[in-house]
Design brief:
This protein is of the alpha/beta class and 359 residues long. It folds into two domains: 3-135, 3-Layer(aba) Sandwich (Cytidine Deaminase, domain 2); 140-354, 3-Layer(aba) Sandwich (Dihydrofolate Reductase, subunit A), CATH 3.40.430.10. The chain has eleven helices and 16 strands. It has a nine-stranded mixed β-sheet with strand order 11-10-9-8-12-6-13-16-15. Strands 2-1-3-4-5 form a five-stranded mixed β-sheet, sandwiched between helices. Strands 7-14 form a two-stranded antiparallel sheet. Helix 3 runs parallel beside helix 4 (111-118). The protein is elongated and about 70 Å long. It binds NADP nicotinamide-adenine-dinucleotide phosphate. Residues 154-155, 162-163, 167-170, 172, 193-197, 200-201, 221-224, 226, 273-274, 292-297, 300, 324 line the site of NADP nicotinamide-adenine-dinucleotide phosphate (NAP).
Length: 359
Amino acid sequence: MSAAQYMDRALFLAARGRGRTSPNPLVGAVVVAPDGVVVGQGAHERAGGPHAEVRALDAAGGRACGATLYCTLEPCCHVGRTGPCVERIVDAGIAKVVAAVEDPNPLVSGRGFRYLRSRGVAVEVGLGAAAASAINQPFFTLVRAGRPFVTLKAATSLDGCIAARAGVRTSLTSAEADRHAQRARAGVDAIGIGSGTVLADDPLLTVRGAYREQPLTRVIFDRRLRTPPAARVLSTAAAGPVIIITCAGAASARARRALEAAGARVEVAADASLGAALRLLGASGIGSLLLEGGAVLHAAAWDEGLVDYVRLYVTPRTLGPGGVRLFDGRRFRSGRLLNLRVEPVGVDALIEGYVHGPH
Ligand SMILES: NC(=O)c1ccc[n+]([C@@H]2O[C@H](COP(=O)([O-])OP(=O)(O)OC[C@H]3O[C@@H](n4cnc5c(N)ncnc54)[C@H](OP(=O)(O)O)[C@@H]3O)[C@@H](O)[C@H]2O)c1
């Protein structure tokens, strides 16, 4: 097997932790003896659990001596919930570490590599970097920008509308697309909607028909606290917390008390911008947010440059002149989605891609 194949194996293992490691990254590791035999492998399978390198080294035992360790992220050099991986790597007698990317966490960011080199371990960085960055977008965005990775999700008609009329719930997409969207909910830390959608649709915001291990945080962006305490989402505490984000001076203390009594966690952002609200979520360790609308919230996210990924379900029907347009009145610079994917889902078309490219 080639070095690239060992790294592919490590990336495959990393994906095992999907949906379970947040706010930690997905990491996989493979220990390869000098004769090319894989003698140990492991993944970081859940937050607080052993790191991938430790699992791989445990599996390899004495066979790690003189071996090469392939890992999808720079090994850690700080004491978190588990001990520093670099010490374990040196103690095991690993001769060379091949890592896909540097860990942007300020507690690591190159220190792990320096430690290894200073102890005589050869270090090579960059193999499989694009794939390793792509699987850890939420972690990288959280560490670098202090906010979650934002996926804008919307269903639109052929004429670019998300609802038949303002304030009206409109079922647009096929059952297949709805199931697809439910599976996407299962893979993120949080779903977010604006208060307008709560008032119009009164959605449950739970995951249906897809398995999810961690609780799902539901976020309502609602500066004036117009969410009714009887909103259906507040009856779903078993699925995860409901956070309502307001800002100082915009809502009455009475409305806040009523929502808290109904089970919501009301948080006050530093200012009225969506960026401030997202930083609040980042500080709670929310690394990925599926922004499900509606039109005003999506436009605000777009205008503030906070959309990292777009997932659009386009359905083959028109809603006509009264329809609520996605991005109504916005003038865009010309551009295109990156790493574009287009897929038929039932009778609908899914179009998705990065806005700025994976970072
Ligand atoms: N087809 C789809 O994919 C889809 C998905 C969702 C909804 N919809 C439809 O969309 C319609 C609702 O859309 P909408 O535009 O009225 O409501 P919305 O975007 O869900 O909510 C708008 C509200 O969000 C609040 N908000 C909080 N923070 C904000 C910020 N930083 N910037 C801007 N607004 C912020 C504002 O109220 P405050 O000023 O009080 O904060 C604003 O009035 C409904 O008809 C619904 O059925 C369609």
